[in-house]
Amino acid sequence: SQQGEEDPQALSIQEGENATMNCSYKTSINNLQWYRQNSGRGLVHLILIRSNEREKHSGRLRVTLDTSKKSSSLLITASRAADTASYFCATLSGAGNMLTFGGGTRLMVKP
Amino acid sequence: ETGVTQSPTHLIKTRGQQVTLRCSSQSGHNTVSWYQQALGQGPQFIFQYYREEENGRGNFPPRFSGLQFPNYSSELNVNALELDDSALYLCASNILDVPGELFFGEGSRLTVL
Q: Does pLDDT of B3 surpass 70?
């Protein structure tokens, strides 16, 4: 079963616009991570936010975490055509390194 | 490039057959995890291996089994293949006591006919 749900499932924007993706999860977490996946390829780690953090930045990426609402958002600013991909949130809970992924948001950035 | 390599990249099997997928971890990583990703869905955790022993398992039947070798490379074996086993199988490595990102390979795309 999947811990999280991404919203929207699909998003289409013009180059230069901002893209916001949301993720909700069900159980308490140690951290939440966002990954990117180009069509049919492996996942690439984008950013990690710990449960005691509320916001984190990395380049054009901004992630927020609201543990009271069990939700996170990923903002990509000034999007580029090369940002076209699927984006997944994943939560880490308890011991070990088992990640529980959401269903993903498919982002298309039109040039 | 993450340094995690998987083979084969694509393969086709028929229902009832067995398959072995291989993964070479990133140098210095002692833990390997396997995920199944059906088309259009997020990856689902199959199991994790640490020091050659299973260290956690998701909701997958026993016909999914694995091995980790002393050099930290790993195999995923699936017996009695079913049509629903068609998916992208992803291997990821990391250091067990560093609860951070996982480093994924490019995956093995399995099609069961």
A: yes
